[in-house]
Each structure stands twice: as structure tokens, then as C-alpha cells.
Amino acid sequence: MIQTILDLPVEKQIFYSVLGFSWTVYLWEAYLAYRQRRIYRSTTHVPQELGKIMDTETFEKSRLYQLDKSNFSFWSGLYSETEGTLILLLGGIPCLWGVAGSVTTRFGFGPEYEISQSLVFLTLATLFSAFTGLPWSIYNTFVIEEKHGFNQQTLGFFLKDAVKKFVVTQCILLPVTSLLLYIIKIGGDYFFIYAWLFTLGVSLVLVTIYADYIAPLFDKFTPLPEGELKTEIETMAKSISFPLTKVYVVEGSKRSSHSNAYFYGFFKNKRIVLFDTLLEDYSPLNKTGEPQPEQAEADNTASEATAKPKNKKQGCNNPEILAVLGHELGHWKLGHTVKNIVISQMNSFLCFFLFAVLIGRKELFLAFGFHDSQPTLIGLMIIFQFIFSPYNELLSFCLTVLSRRFEFQADAFARGMGKASELYSALIKLNKDNLGFPVADWLFSMWHYSHPPLLERLRALGNVKQD
Question: Quick check: pTM over 0.70?
């Protein structure tokens, strides 16, 4: 078998190696998921170690939720892998490139207008991806999330949101791609340096403007009202020299009852964002009776996305919110954000450098059905998505291990601020609210979990007394 493959032309060896590695990764992931599903099915009673922090009803809910998600992931993953394989075997990529060429020719642009053809190809590819992924997304939202009490959307709101996301994505993706391709075309021998600098600049701009200009297109952001919580957040930020400028509450409850918190911004302009579902005193999911109407300008949106309180969520009280933010600020104080940016950009530079080395290899294009042309966009896709896939898998695992280490360090930072007890109870509440299953297969956890399992984090925080 191996000798037969080695006797094939180089382009065929490349093609079958890419296909073989893709299925190897899929089967490995499927095996890990099988191990974890076995845990979900067999662990039907609360383990003794969890008896004091998790009741039987919540444990069973989380078990069934995670089991449903795992089963869904199996079928969607199998479909995705099969679809990708058929696209490669049937020559879907060169076929779509040809269709894009036909479209540009109709508008008077010949083969020499490669960037125009690339943008049409990209639009058609993302449209195909959006349409094939839509049924899976609908099922996940309106069957699984709905069944377990998390979904807060109507179908109309969901579809309008999907269209809006697609349009916004295209408005960013197409100009950025066209400029990147142009830079590669005119950059000479050192184009990879200019391409890397360009993508670095785009990344920094997007991180800076996302929460102020892009995220508000989808969710309502309001300043956290003056009061005890805001004052304590500002005091805590000042105590560690965190240059906080604003604190926002985002209306996450119109989509889902899952909760989150994050900060963003560069230099002296940091902002904190709290999901309303995280705040015990603000979450609509904790309010009884009919939901309050939105302001006049948002009445139409509110009627479609109004929260339907199926499961009353706890959220966190003020001391627990401060502990969660102590953890998040720990990431900043310990330099985790900067370290992640540095690692990301080193990887980006390395990839562009290797792309510069490989882009001239005609056999890479022949392997994927491009016999008469070597389009730059196709080269980017082949090299970054297919040729680099073993490296990407290894890097992803290493970053997962590093992320868990950072999470432990951020927990320790919050503990050093005297918030161990509050963080302990907050982690338990958030795990319950999000129906996280606290028992994990060791191999599945090692490969997938960017955050340590709940029990490991609680043990690291120590034996703090709970009320």
C-alpha cells in the first residue's frame, strides 16, 4: 500500500497525504469524543467528591445536555469531513474557480484580473459554506439549545442575524483579501514580510474596533449603571493599575442564557464587558412575569428576541463578579494577553515565510486540479489549510496546554487578591448555569479543554469554606 503511494506522481502523493491526514485527525477526534460520551453515559450519579457542590438534578441535566451536544457533534463532524472529502475528490475547488472566472468574464474582466476572480471565488465559497452549515446551526439552536433551556431566539431573529453576520463578514473579508493579494503580487522577494505586517495591522485594528463598532451591530451594549458594583470594579482595577475607561453590560440574554465576561482595548484604553446573564441583579432570566419591553427604537428586535425564561439562572452576586473579573484581570497583569499575541504573530510570520518558500511549487497546484494556473488565493488555501494541517494540529494542542496553565495562574492571581472563596462559589454557579459536566475523560480533557476541568480548578483554589 505504502509502496504503491510512493510510486505515484508527486502531486498524487501530496493529494492522498492531505486526504489521509484529514481522516486521521477526524478519526482521532471521533475516538476522543467516543471516550467522553462513554463517561456521559456511565456516570449517572453525582461522584462523592462533587456531592457538596452539585445537586442530583443539575448533574443529570448537565449530563444529558453534554450527551446531546456530543451526539450532534459526531454527526455534524462526519458530514463536514465527508463533504470536504467529496469536494477534493470531485474537483470542487477548481470547478468553483472556473465558475468565478465565468462570472468575472461576464462583467468584462479576463483571466488577468486574478484578484477580481479571487473575490468572486471567495464570495461563492462562503455562500456555499453558509448554506450547507445553516441546517446544522438551526438544529443546534432550536433543538438542542432549546431543549435544554438555553435558546432565547426566534427563527426570524436567528435568520436575520445570520444574514447580518454574512454581510458584515463579507464587508471585512473581501477588502482585506484583495489588499493582501495585491501586497503578495507587488511585494517582490520579501512580500512575506509585508503580508505579515499587513495582517498584523488588520488584527490590531479589528481588536480595537470590534467591541465599539462591530459587536453593537448584533448586541445592545449599555454602560454599567453607577452603583456599588461599578465602584468596586473601578477600585479593583485601580489597585492593579489596570487602565479601565468603561464598563459595559451586553444584552446576551436575547440570544442565549449562557454567560461570559471579557476585556478589550490597547494601552490606556481598556474596557470591561459583562454579559447580563452573568449578573444576578441584571439578568432578565431571573425576573418573574412578562419581560419588560425594550426602548422604542428597539421594539421590533425585542419582539423577536425576547427572553423566554424557561430555567431561572442564578448568575453571580457582586463579590463573585469581582472574583471573576479578578481572574480576567489576572490574565492582563500576568502578561497572558501579550504572550498570546506574540505567539500568534510569530506563528503568522513563520507561516508566511514558508508560504513564500512553497508558493512556486507547481506540484501543489497540480495536486488539487489546477493544471493551467497558479492563483495566489488558491495557493494560500492549499498551503495554509492543507499543507500546514499537521503543524496546525500540533500548535493547537500546545496552545491548549498553555491556555490551561494560564487559567491556573489567573485563578491564583484572584486568590492572591483575597477572592478565593468568591471565585470558588462563582465557578460552581457558572458551571451549573451553563450545565457544564464536571467529569471528563483524561485524554479528551487533555486534547480539548482550554480551561481546566472544574474539580481541578477548585482543588487549586484550596479548601475554602462555602456559605
Answer: yes
